[in-house]
Write a structure and sequence with these properties.
Distance between the termini: 47 Å
CATH class of the largest domain: Alpha Beta
Helix content: 40-55%
Largest sheet: 9 strands, mixed
Shape: globular
Number of domains: 3
Number of helices: 17
Bound molecules: iron/sulfur cluster
Radius of gyration: 24 Å
Number of strands: 18
């Protein structure tokens, strides 16, 4: 564990995120006078970094491991600037100090948030020109020229796509199906093995139907723009269960205004011809068939328990069933994969020619078994590279796709981003909505989070419990939470 001591409880989230971006393998803990430390031994660990906030200055000291050498950086706040300006100026000082200390420049500079395009989108909507936005990102946040172009291009495309939506009087629906055939090693979502839970699926669907009826009442008079069924893996349900779910959904909500209806089929080992037919019959417009990688060995390693052939079979089966908007997800930075593996995956996907490709950088979250596995096997998971990202971007471009949404995650391999690419007219609108937080999303099912977006941009949330049995038992409470959120 590495300790950063600060004499003030200030900007801890930003400090933690930035230090982790420069030192991704660190298990960083920030200690301030307000920290509650249960394990007293932590207090005896010599800090690797120290921050001293004074009235007119901030001193940042970095020690080497043996604590016999240190570098100090000082910022003099001679202007006594106000809170926001102080925070921004501190962010610049802290980033440039780390940059000097490590000799590394981060592609997204000192931006630590998960939604860099939201910042750009807000500036575009405030009437700023592309040049003004580029200068702001370059000078205030040290974003690379390449990411500036990527971010502005995506925000412009998002504006066009979202133009047809009902921001204020509309909403989107998310339905969570928290079951999967097996649990992937890197999974940090709400997911339970279907084999163990199959007896409870009817109860789960019943609870969902109750939630649907209540939500339909609450949202009367609003326009339903998009519907997304995710998880987990929705297609881990049987064809009959999917039929029941989609029938209830369509009987409860007015689908006449829906512009996009996605089911994240996801795992190839859960897709059958019968399920695809059911989805087509109910008017699903977009599905995902996610390989993550087209390398057999890695699929086994990460616990996907399906083969590359199953992915290609599921893809062609989906085409045959009539789907003309298929997304594929891949992950870069998977353990043991090099740039040649990424190239091979991209080439295999190019043969299939999906309408969209979502490129994720592996994010190692504490909860995921992958994190433990990496520790036990001494493997570094942070091996995504600019070259791999480029390979994916070039592959997407060769398939006629452009980047249309982007987000970042904490602990992301190589401090890169996740990018969604799509051919014209086949973008995942819901994906943009989730990132840009422009529209109310009502989320149903275990572990889902609803977001109410007010016209002034304010956002309020309501969470459902994660545990399936709890969700079923406490469904009335989940409905009540939503009633409170949508009470006026
Ligand atoms: S398919 Fe997705 S949700 Fe299911 S276990 Fe794998 S990573 Fe988790």
């Amino acid at each position: 564990m590495q300790i950063l001591r600060s004499n003030k409880a200030r900007y801890e989230y930003e400090i933690h995120a930035l230090v982790k971006s420069f030192y991704p393998a660190w298990d960083l803990k920030i200690l301030t006078p307000e920290s509650v430390v249960k394990d007293r031994k932590i207090l005896e660990i010599p800090p690797v970094m120290e921050l001293e906030f004074q009235d007119d200055s901030v001193k940042f000291t970095v020690y080497d491991e043996r604590h016999d050498r240190s570098n100090s950086y000082t910022w003099w706040d001679t202007d006594r600037i106000d809170d926001d300006a102080y925070k921004n100026a501190f962010g610049r000082f802290f980033y440039t100090s780390l940059q000097e200390e490590t000799g590394i420049s981060l592609p997204w500079g000192n931006l630590t948030g998960v939604r860099p395009t939201k910042l750009i989108m807000n500036m575009l909507e405030a009437g700023k020109s592309e040049n003004e936005i580029a200068a702001f990102l370059r000078e205030q946040h040290f974003v690379s020229e390449e990411k500036i172009d990527l971010g502005i291009g995506i925000a412009q495309r998002e504006r066009e796509i979202l133009g047809a939506l009902h921001y204020e009087d509309g909403y989107s629906l998310y339905i969570g199906i928290p079951f999967c055939p097996t649990t992937c090693l890197y999974c940090s979502f709400t997911s339970y093995p279907i084999g163990v839970w199959k007896e409870r699926v009817p109860d789960y669907l019943e609870a969902l139907e109750k939630e649907m009826r209540a939500v339909a009442q609450m949202c009367r008079g609003r326009v339903l723009d998009t519907v997304y069924i995710g998880g987990g893996t929705p297609t881990s349900l049987t064809a009959e269960e999917i039929d029941r779910l989609l029938t209830s959904l369509k009987n409860t909500f007015d689908f006449s205004t829906v512009q996009e209806f996605t089911v994240e089929a996801g795992r190839a080992d859960s897709i059958t011809e019968e399920k695809l037919k059911v989805m087509r019959r109910h008017g699903v417009t977009r599905i995902s068939v996610n390989p993550q990688t087209m390398k057999e060995e890695t699929l086994k390693l990460i616990g996907r328990q399906h083969t590359v052939k199953q992915v290609t079979d599921a893809f062609y089966m989906s085409r045959k069933a009539g789907f003309d908007n298929i997304n594929m997800d891949i992950i870069l930075g998977l353990p043991g994969e090099n740039k040649e593996d990424v190239r091979a995956t991209i080439e295999a996907i190019m043969v299939l020619a999906p309408e969209s490709l979502t490129v994720h950088s592996l994010a190692v979250k504490r909860a995921a078994r992958l994190s433990q596995w990496i520790g036990e096997n001494g493997i570094t998971a942070y091996n995504n590279t600019e070259e791999m990202m480029q390979t994916a971007a070039l592959g997407a471009s060769a398939m006629g796709m452009s980047p249309y949404y982007l987000y970042r995650q904490k602990n992301m391999s190589g401090n890169f981003e996740n990018v969604g690419y799509a051919v014209k007219g086949k973008h995942g609108i819901y994906n943009i909505l989730i990132m840009e937080e422009k529209q109310t999303i009502v989320a149903l099912g275990a572990g889902s989070i609803s977001k109410r977006v007010y016209p002034d941009g304010r956002i309020e949330r309501s969470e459902n419990v994660k545990e399936v049995a709890q969700y079923i038992e406490r469904i009335d409470e989940m409905v009540e939470r939503k009633r409170v959120l949508f009470s006026d």
